[in-house]
Amino acid sequence: MLIEHKVDKKLSFAIILGNTVAWADFALYAYFSLVLSKVFFPFTSSANAYILYFIVFALGFLFRPIGSAIAGVYADKHGRKNTLMATVIISSVITALIGLLPSYDTIGFFSPLLLTILRILQTMSISAEPTNSGSLLIESAPDNRKGLVTSCVMVGIFVGFVLGIYSFYLLSSWLTTEQMSLWGWRLSFLFFASLGIIVVIVLSFTEESPLFLQRKKENRLNPHPFKTAVAQYPRQMFIAFGYALMMAVTNYFLLGYVPKFAQHTLGLSQKQESLAITFCLVITVILIPFMGLLSDKVGRRWVMGGGALGFCLLGYPMILLINTGEYHFFVFALAIYGVLLAPVSAVLPVALAEMFPFEVRCTGGAIGYNIALLLLGGTTPIVVSQLVKVSGTFFAAFWYISGVAFIHLMFIIFSKETKNTDLSV
User: Fold this and answer.
1) Which CATH number do you get for residue 366?
2) Is 362 in contact with 80 (CB distance < 8 Å)?
3) What digits encode the pLDDT tens for the residues 225-250?
4) Helices 300-323 + 270-298 axis angle, to 10
5) The dihedral of CA 77, 80, 82, 84: what is its sign?
6) Model pLDDT for residues 247-265, shown as the tens digit of each residue
7) Are 383 and 400 in contact (CB under 8 A)?
8) Is the residue at 31 inside a domain?
9) Could you tell me the CA-to-CA distances from 85 to 18, 193, 291, 352 in Å, in that order?
10) Residue 354: which domain range?
11) Is residue 227 in some structural domain?
């Protein structure tokens, strides 16, 4: 049976919006760190509260492989669209619960305990969304536009980051520090949770992957995708891990470490660093579709490899510019960062989807991707903080980021191009 592929604009919009809602929570958690660390950990110093707060952030990543395995298996057995719908509903409910969570001053140690539980569940719920969304899009896209269409996943993720930061900026501009601590921070969480309703409505009017529907009709779905992925495709999962390394480190360095460094070490205001990082992410959002389209022309490895090589070569100049403490140099450095982040991120969903056969596409890609985020994602703010503290210089961040970029580049060099993969296999 020949499947007709065309760009489904409604589906693309739904996936952009769905990822925006799901990933805005991560930006909120990172950006409200100075406020929320005091709300949930007021019993210790500000420095220790910040560390405890990001330990909770990192703990969620420990459970990402479990969440990704559950969601990936469900997507391979019951459908990509159904999984995406469930992800949006669950993540939106949890985001709302975080927004309603009582502070430590109200219920004591139950407050950080409940925050930890909710963060773990939240991280698990969205752990497979980039790979599941990527599979849904790529199986519905024309062969010559797979990279472009699938880049919608990363557009949604980075728009979520931008809107999360912008909501923080607006609230911090309108409210006093006391108002932010008491109730202001809750508004952003509740707002993005409510957007989940819109996503569910839009998704209800979209179609399931035509390839999945065909396989289901022919009774050719794999009943044991996890077992098959682990037994038959360990090499592909290892490469998926390597492909996701740079995305894991660069995102959480930018969102989890740079704001604190900019304010506490460089002496920049919240407004200054928020605008600079937002500018960086807007550049990334604009460039992502072009990087996806470029990968349809020249291949996935060339685009990703260009981004990785850029971080290797330009990492030191970027750190040097940031370390000057001059605001215009800080903005310029983050602009370069945003340009390099686009190729690293844009091609990841399509490359992961093409790496695996249909029967384990969501499961295999999700597990490899999330092991990378487990080891290098949530831990990045803590690791970089400790490296800078021990070495006494911000340049330690360069060695960390450039080192990961080099490893990422080696994975790309020693892997096969996937652009012309037959997705129906």
Assistant:
1) 1.20.1250.20
2) yes
3) 999 999 999 999 999 999 999 998 99
4) 160
5) positive
6) 989 988 998 788 888 888 8
7) yes
8) yes
9) 9, 14, 27, 21
10) 9-221+232-413
11) no
